[in-house]
Each structure stands twice: as C-alpha cells, then as structure tokens.
Recover the amino acids of this structure.
C-alpha cells in the first residue's frame, strides 16, 4: 500500500501491531492516557475501541501485506463474508464491472457501505437485475487508512440497509511529503498482466492543510482457454456443443452434414470443429465453443483520485471538504455471437426445398470476426463523491458538532454487440410467407450455413446497443455529542443526529432494442425513480459502574416514494462488563430495517433472457444427470418477464450478539462472539434457478404439489405443450417479481486472536487469526411453508465456515507475511454432494532499501491450486466462489520524498 511516510521496519511493525490491537480489548485507560476515537457502530467517541459489538479492522498495510489486490479483495476474504456474490470475475452476470460482498450470506443489499462514515451512490445497474448495492471495485486503495467492519444490525445509528452489518472505509486524514508506489505483475499460466501507479502526498501551510492521491491501474483479461483444465467443455467426456447444426423438426433428428463438411470447418474455434455423432444424428461441434469467448477475469483500466482540504477557522473549529473521483473502463465476454433460425417465431421454419420443418443453428467463431475481443461487452463508468462542512467544539461546553453536506453520483454506459435482425435472411434467404400453422417459409441454400464468414460479412450483420444508467444520493446532516452529566463511574455521554437526504436512479436502454433492429431481442423498458428521507436519532453511553457500561440508541427514519411514506423506528442496546482489566463480557440487541430497493419499486415490466439456464425438469425427463444433459447450463438461457411493485413494505430485522474478550497483555488477546440475525418481510426477487429446481421437484413429487411453494413455482414457469411441433416442454418464460417473503434468519460464531512474540535476534513475530462458523441459516418463502435449511442445502453456494490466519515476521530491514485462508465445504454444481474444503496461501516479502525506499514481492496462491468441480460439466470449478487464475505475482516499489 502507498504510505505517506516510509518508516523503518521496526516502526512499521509497531504501527501494524497497533492497528491489530485496535480491534481487540484494551485495559481501561486512566484519564488522558488514550485519545478518544470514533468507532464504526457508534457516534460517541470513546477511549476503548472495544464496545458492545465486535468491530473488525483491516489496516491499509494489511491490504498489501496479506496479498489483497484491492479494497474489494480485502473485504471479500474476511471470514464474516460467507455469501457468494457475482461480480467482475463471475462471467454471466448483469454487473461484471462491479464487485460487492454479502456479509452473513444475506445478500449485498443488506450490508451498508460507507466512506468516511457517509453514504455513497449505489452502482446504477441492479445486482442480478434486482437489488441495489455499492460497488467496491472503484474505491482507490492509495489513501485507505483502515476499513472497519461491524457485523449485525446498526439501523439505530445509520438507518436503512445496516441489517447484516456496516463496512466503513476510512481514508487517511493527513500526510506530509510525497509518496510514489509502482506495482506490476501477472499470472503464471498466462493472462491477467497488470500494473498500477499511485502518487499521493500532502502538507500544511498556516491554517490550511490538505492531501491528495492518484491511482492509475490497468489489467489484461484472463480467458478460459488460457487454463488447461477449462479450455474445452468436452474434456470430461461430455458431448461437444453444436457449432453448426440442422434439425429435422418432424423426426427430431439432426441432418448429417457429412465428415467432409465438418473437416472444412475444422480450423474454426481454435482448430477444434469435428463431426459429432449423437443418438439424434450428427452435427459439426466443438468443445471450445464456450471457452473461446469466456473471460474468467475482466479487462480493466481505471483512474481514481482523491483530495481533501481543511481550514482552521480557530483552535477548535475547522472547515473541511473532500472529493473522490473514479473512472473505470471494463470489458468482458461470456458468449460469442450465435444464431438460431426464426428465433422470434418458434425457432423453426418450413423448408420449401425439402418440404419439411427444420431448425438451423450457428455459432460464429473468433476466426470469422477478427478475434473474440470483437464481441466484448464494454462498461465505461464514472463516479464522484463530494463532501464539505464545518465542525468544532461548542465554546465553554464538552460538546462538539459537525454540519456536512454530501453528494455522490455514478454513471455507467454499457456497450453490447448484437446481431442484427437481418441475420435470418443472411442464412435463410428471404422469408416467403407463412404456412397454415404459422411457421415462416424459406427456401435456403444449406451451403450458406456451413460457409465461414468473412470479417466484412460479419460486420454487415452486427451492430451494437448502448444503455445509459445513472444513480445519485445526497445528504445534509447535523450531529453533535458531549457530556450530559456525571455519574460516580464517569460521564453520561449523548450523541444526536438529524439527516435530510434523497436518492435516485435512471436506466435508459438503447431505443434500437424496441425498433426491431437487433436479432431476437425482447422489449426493453427504461426505469427511473427517486425517494426522499429524513431521520432523527440519539445515542447514550452510560457508565453505571466502573466495570459496567450500558449503551442505547434510537432512530426514526421516514422514506417518501411512489406517492407514499414508510417510517421506521429502530433501537439497540448494549452492555460491556469488565470484571477485570483484562476481561470483557459484551452483549448487544438491535432492531434494523431496510427500505425497499428502488429497483424493486420502480422497475417496469422488463422482458429479456438469462445468460444461461439449467432446465431441471427436462433433464429429469431425459433420464440422466446434469453432466450429460443438453439442457444443463445452456446459453443463451430462458426468457424472463420481470415486474416491479410499488406496494412493497420495508424489511424488519433484529439481531443479537454476545461474547467475551480476554487480553492478558498487549501482546496477546482472544475473543469469541455468538451472533444471530433475523429478517422479516424480506424483499426478494425469486431466484430463477431455484424456481426451476422447485418446479422440477414439484412435478416429480419430491415436494407437495399443493404446497404454496409448488403452486407459486408452477405458475411462474411457462412451457411449450408436451405435444408441441418443435421443442416440446421448452421454457417459454419465467415470471419473476419482488415479494415480501416471510422470514430469513441465520446464526453463527466468530472467533479471533492475536499473539505478538519478540524473539530477539531472530526477529519479531505477529500471529493473527479469525474464524467464522455459520451455525444455522433458514428461509421461508411463504409464512405457511416449512423452514428451508439453507446452511445445509445443496443448492446454496454460500460457505458454512471460513478461517483466516496470518504470520508476520520482521527483522531489521526485512519483513514477510504469510496469509492462509481456508474455505469450508460447498455444494457441488450438480447439487448432489458437498465438495471438500479448500485453502489458499498468499505470501509477501519486503526489504527496506533505505529510510525512503522499499521493495516488495507479493505472491498469491503460492501453491498454484484451483478447486475443481466436474459434477455438472464446464467450466469445472465453483464459479463465483473461487477464481481459477492460479499463481499470481507482483513486484512493488515504494519511495517517499519531501518532508
């Protein structure tokens, strides 16, 4: 990480240890020994950084020393983050240009993310097309002082969203001189080359002080074909997917193109096209149809900047302001151009030349279009966050105040390449009308289907669509805190806050999508909306005894949207009991809420298709497992119809935690905390994969077909009739919309520890560890449904446990850190069993060249391992849970100059 002042290694270790100690219990200080600080989860400054709830601290140095690539990577690796999320490296997702986390497995929209204690704008495109979230991918690490993670409900302090917890990213407040940081690296197995430069500095002159930071980075993509284990989707013996095919609809058999035809096409898809013989006939296929276009890590270029100024009006009053800017350009690819005849009219046509009904399909190879990058999707994002205000002490009192205004905005332009509607006539010739059954009539030349395209021909049938998406939020706040009166054990402190704010978003699709310009595109309807809010809150810190402190907070929030108001009162209370200076018992109870996501409220009826779908019902009808089923993970996937709802109610949450911290010395401490979180009236867009699993189980009699879940699932999946001329039982549409579900609740155990050993001439050692175990996770879709055990369910991709452990060694100019992360078991992709746990090892080593310069080597995934999962076919690893990059390494150089 870029430091404002490069310290000798011994001093750097002292800073590292101090940062680690900040998250553990400290002996109660005497007056004046410890400066009071603001800790996430409270608006009352306090001497001890341990309170009634556990707060995890990641320092700026931790981000680099433990092998984290950025802020998101650091948060994603924390043990409290047990939920799998789709992000920049997931592949098929609505938001590959963004990254988020899921504390306690409750989803990204149930974690409140703050920068310097303030809200920032959501990413303007909804996660999974459903929920709003904050993008962690564009927060620069150059000026991160620390990140504090509070697990559990905190709405009584921060308002909506803080159900699973709060992530507060705290930037550095001061700097002296200038620092430059250079970092470059890549992967052992190819792809992913990246480089970064950070430049920061600051200083003061008279009453004015300030700092700035600039971060420029660039990363090349990793393609799935660059990893041997996933370079072909038929390496496990699966039948290669179709690249060129003709299907006789009446017989249900493929029309054999002949070996010579497929051989002529053999150079396509990286010299892999062959004649594939199946029980239904033959076609030209390739195991590299999917890997040819799939990026397992996005291409990215970003420019981020931050600056802040403070002007001292008097000894105790200052004006302040800060500005953060981010520009990101991202590219990914999850599927190449593909065509199916008359896709908008049933997928088949009447062939006048043969006198029968046929269905033709065609995958267009990278060699035909000038390389796979020609069909990349692109995101150009810009974000800004501005804050200014005044703070100081109220004269002749113990009170201080802050008045601030914050505005944050986010803009994203998405560019998607699409085939034009003329592609049907290119391959089939002109449409000659319709027959009595409504099928289109063509008289095509079959040679056209098997003729490779030239780049010019491809350009003639390809266009691009651009959507523009925006979001913003603004808040005016006034807060104050101070002493009310004194008790024998100490002063009673009060903090108060009032906030006025608003937020909004707009999604504007390309108008061409509704003008018939593109092939097989559903109607795209824009959406926009806004809401206003105000809040009033108070918090008390009451030392009943020297050994016993009570905290209490209450807050009322009111949201106005869609012509109505929704107000919530939340509260929390906590206890800290110190029977000895080295021992702390703590407990907390909190209520919380989340106002409905604006995307849920304002989303219009939207038609589209999923990037991929698994049709469990048709696989069951075929009588074989998912790995050999042609309806498993097929792409593009099923069509959907999605609607919003302005009648949604706010979610209500409550959480409990209690634990113990033992700190016999400043060199050793351990803690253990039990936690439980419950959400009622959960707003959720039902997962289409779960809908299809439930539907298949209901049809098979594994679930009660008369249960509310089955009635709902069967109504949501619309299929072709079983006796349809073409594609019987195929999914027509999946109906999805948000509902207020009955309940979700989860509980678990967090444990952590730290041990600092001074070993004389050998050096100093710091051992740290964190462990999270999910004890239960239950869900009810409807109140009358039985509990679903998500913790042990074979369709839930979340972890049940996580362990982080690190060992740091320092001796003179040398320092090194080894970080081990162990992930608990997961369900396999087929949902038939659990995989074994998996561990990753990162390592860094640093040498202090001089007081001003240092050089570091960082290696991630030292053992070059990846987690395989062949249960459900390609891509043969748990997508979203683990990355398949293999060993990565970086060289990093830091230099400080100036004062």
């Amino acid at each position: 990480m870029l430091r404002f002042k490069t310290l000798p290694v011994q001093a750097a270790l002292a800073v590292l240890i101090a940062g680690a100690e900040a998250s553990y219990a400290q002996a109660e200080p005497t007056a004046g020994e410890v400066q009071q600080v603001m800790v996430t989860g409270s608006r009352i400054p306090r001497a001890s950084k341990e309170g009634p709830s556990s707060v995890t601290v990641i320092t700026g140095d931790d981000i680099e020393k433990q092998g984290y690539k950025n802020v998101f990577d650091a948060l994603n690796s924390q043990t409290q983050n047990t939920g799998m999320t789709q992000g920049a490296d997931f592949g098929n997702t609505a938001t590959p240009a963004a990254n988020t986390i899921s504390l306690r497995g409750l989803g990204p929209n149930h974690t409140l993310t703050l920068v310097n204690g303030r809200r920032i704008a959501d990413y303007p495109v909804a996660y999974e097309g459903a929920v709003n979230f904050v993008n962690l991918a564009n927060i620069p690490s150059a000026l991160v002082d620390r990140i504090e993670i509070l697990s559990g409900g905190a709405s009584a302090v921060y308002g909506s969203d803080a159900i699973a917890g709060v992530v507060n990213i705290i930037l550095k407040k001061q700097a002296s001189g200038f620092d430059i940081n250079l970092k470059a690296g890549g992967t052992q197995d190819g792809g992913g080359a990246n480089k970064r430069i950070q430049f920061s500095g600051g200083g003061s002159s008279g009453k004015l002080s300030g700092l700035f930071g600039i971060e420029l980075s660039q990363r090349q993509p990793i393609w799935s074909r660059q990893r041997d284990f996933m370079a072909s989707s038929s390496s496990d013996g699966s039948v290669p997917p179709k690249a060129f095919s003709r299907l006789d609809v009446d017989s249900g058999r493929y029309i054999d193109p002949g070996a010579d035809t497929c051989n002529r096409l053999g150079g396509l898809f990286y010299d892999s096209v062959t004649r594939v013989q199946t029980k239904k006939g033959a076609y030209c296929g390739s195991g590299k149809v999917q890997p040819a276009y799939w990026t397992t890590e996005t291409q990215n270029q970003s420019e981020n900047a931050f600056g802040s100024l403070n002007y001292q009006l008097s000894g105790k009053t200052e004006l302040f302001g800060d500005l953060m800017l981010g520009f990101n350009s991202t590219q990914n690819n999850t599927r190449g151009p593909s065509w199916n005849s008359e896709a908008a009219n049933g997928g088949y046509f009447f062939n006048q030349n043969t006198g029968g009904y046929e269905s033709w399909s065609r995958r267009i190879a990278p060699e035909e279009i000038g390389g796979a990058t020609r069909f990349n999707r692109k995101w150009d994002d810009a974000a800004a966050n501005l804050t200014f205000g005044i703070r100081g002490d109220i004269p002749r009192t113990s009170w201080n105040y802050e008045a601030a205004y914050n505005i944050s905005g986010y803009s994203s332009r998405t560019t998607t390449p699409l085939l034009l509607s003329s592609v049907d006539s290119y391959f089939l010739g002109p449409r000659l009308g319709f027959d009595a059954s409504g099928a289109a009539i063509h008289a095509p030349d079959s040679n056209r289907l098997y003729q490779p395209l030239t780049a010019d021909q491809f350009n003639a049938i390809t266009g691009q669509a651009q959507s523009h998406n925006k979001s913003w939020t603004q808040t005016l706040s006034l807060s104050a805190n101070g002493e009310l009166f004194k008790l024998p054990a100490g002063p009673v402190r009060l903090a108060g806050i009032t906030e006025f704010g608003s937020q909004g978003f707009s999604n504007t699709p390309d108008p061409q999508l509704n003008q018939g310009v593109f092939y097989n595109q559903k109607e795209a309807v824009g959406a926009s909306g806004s809401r206003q809010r105000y809040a009033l809150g108070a918090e008390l810190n009451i030392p009943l005894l020297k050994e016993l402190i009570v905290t209490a907070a209450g807050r009322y929030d009111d949201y106005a949207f869609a012509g109505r108001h929704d107000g919530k009162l939340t509260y929390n209370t906590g206890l800290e009991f110190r029977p000895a200076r080295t021992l702390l018992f703590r407990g907390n109870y909190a209520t919380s809420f989340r106002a409905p996501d604006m995307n849920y409220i304002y989303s219009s009826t939207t038609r589209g298709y999923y990037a991929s779908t698994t049709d469990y019902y048709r696989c069951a009808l075929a009588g074989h497992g998912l790995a050999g089923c042609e309806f498993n993970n097929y792409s593009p996937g099923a069509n959907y119809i999605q609607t919003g709802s302005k009648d949604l109610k706010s979610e209500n949450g409550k959480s409990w935690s209690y634990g113990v911290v033992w700190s016999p010395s400043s060199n050793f401490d351990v803690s253990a905390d039990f936690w439980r979180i419950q959400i009622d009236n959960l707003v959720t867009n039902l997962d289409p994969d779960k809908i299809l699993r439930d539907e298949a189980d209901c049809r098979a009699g594994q679930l009660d077909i008369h249960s509310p879940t089955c009635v709902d699932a069967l109504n949501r999946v619309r299929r072709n009739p079983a006796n349809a001329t073409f594609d019987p039982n195929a999914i027509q549409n999946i109906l999805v919309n948000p509902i207020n579900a009955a309940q979700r609740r989860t509980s678990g155990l967090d444990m952590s520890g730290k041990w600092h050993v001074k070993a004389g001439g050998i050096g100093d050692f710091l051992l740290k560890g964190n462990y999270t175990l999910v004890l239960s996770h239950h869900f009810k879709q409807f109140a009358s449904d039985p509990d679903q055990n998500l913790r042990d369910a074979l369709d839930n991709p979340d972890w049940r446990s996580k362990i982080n452990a690190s060992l740091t060694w320092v001796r003179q100019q040398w320092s090194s850190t080894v970080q081990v992360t162990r992930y608990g078991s997961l369900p396999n992709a087929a949902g038939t069993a659990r995989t074994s746990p998996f561990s990753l090892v990162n390592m860094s080593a640093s040498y202090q060249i001089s007081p001003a310069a240092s050089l570091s080597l960082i290696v991630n995934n030292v053992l070059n391992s990846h987690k395989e999962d062949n249960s459900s076919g390609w891509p043969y690893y748990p997508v979203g849970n683990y990355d398949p990059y293999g060993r990565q390494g970086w060289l990093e150089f830091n230099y400080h100059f100036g004062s």
Summary: Residues 9-21 form the longest helix (13 residues). The two ends are 19 Å apart (CA to CA). The first strand starts at residue 55 and ends at 59.
